[in-house]
Amino acid sequence: MALALAAPAGLFSCSPGRGKSPLPAWTWYVAGKDRRKIKKDLALFGRMGFEGIHFQGSDEIVAWAAPLARKEGLRIHRWIITLMSRDKKIMKEHPDWFVVSREGKSSFDHPPYVPYYKWLCPNHEGVVRHLEERVRDTARIDGVEGVHLDYIRFPDVILPKGLWKKYDIVQDMEYPQYDFCYCDVCRGRFREEHGIDPLDLPDPSADNAWRQFRYDSITRLVKHLYEVAHREGKQLTAAVFPTPSIARRLVRQAWDQWTLDAVFPMIYHNFYEKDIDWIGDAVQEGQQALQGRFPLYAGLFVPAIPPERITEAVRQSRMNGADGICLFRYSVMNEKHWENFLV
């Protein structure tokens, strides 16, 4: 499948003879400070024929690990958290950057679900400049071939059903305390475009124009960050919710309309109370929506996949058109997982 930008040959294609991975494979990887462990893990991914890793770590660790990854035949994309923020400097200096609920409460001091769920508004110019700088600085790290965006969305207006019990919650509709963003910037922009304050709509949750406004806010931000990364000669990819329809409904993410080099839907079947064969359904929906505009790598949630069924998870991805797969929580992979994965 052609990329959105002419890029180095084989950027998203598995090199012959690198391993037995049944599909081009990536993994999300959170690096600690133990460099010996990082080096050992990179060697493992190389032996298993992985194509690349989404690497989360400090600037120093990323710069150190990038050439080691290349020696193992791996491509490294720096994995960054975007609109969810725990940045103490931002919280101290820019509390106005955070999204506001339909109740009028900021996620800065009234975060939904959990205390760290503090989200930045994609329509604040300061937020755009902040993320632009992060992407540009990351793209300039020697050896990093791309930037991988995570949490590039609004807070969950509805959680995946499989998580309701965990949070002792039922979300049979869009409740005001989980519905974002109603900050002055968003309300002002929508009023300029449509002649009405979203808070004056009879039912904001059912208004298509207001819903589209939120989709477009994220889509516009992604396009801008894509241009920033490409000016530095690097790629931009993103982790997203499992299908275009679910992403729109739960987190205002219209990712099939984005400008990217590849997308990595988190097809975590157990979150949606589905079986493993649903992975194939999700891949199929995503590919039908994309129509070949950029590659789709199916994100697999290893903790919910028994060793004897990981072959089926990969097969469902492959049969339904995934361009590759990506593992989350690779550390859960035991010997049996790896044996079945490499079939």
What's the topology here?
Layout: E1 25-30, H1 35-47, E2 52-56, H2 59-71, E3 75-81, H3 88-93, H4 125-139, E4 146-150, H5 184-194, H6 208-231, E5 235-240, H7 244-251, E6 262-265, H8 278-290, E7 297-301, H9 310-319, E8 324-328, H10 335-341
Parallel strand pairs: 1-2, 1-8, 2-3, 3-4, 4-5, 5-6, 7-8
Helix pairs in contact: 1-2, 4-6, 8-9
The largest beta-sheet arranges its strands as 6-5-4-3-2-1-8-7
- How would you state the average pLDDT, rounded? 93
DSSP strand count = 8
Instruction: Please give the radius of gyration in angstroms.
Output: 20 Å
Give the fraction of residues assigned to helices. Answer: 25-40%
The backbone outline, from C-alpha atoms, is: globular
Oligomer state of the chains in this structure? single chain
Helices, by number, come to 10
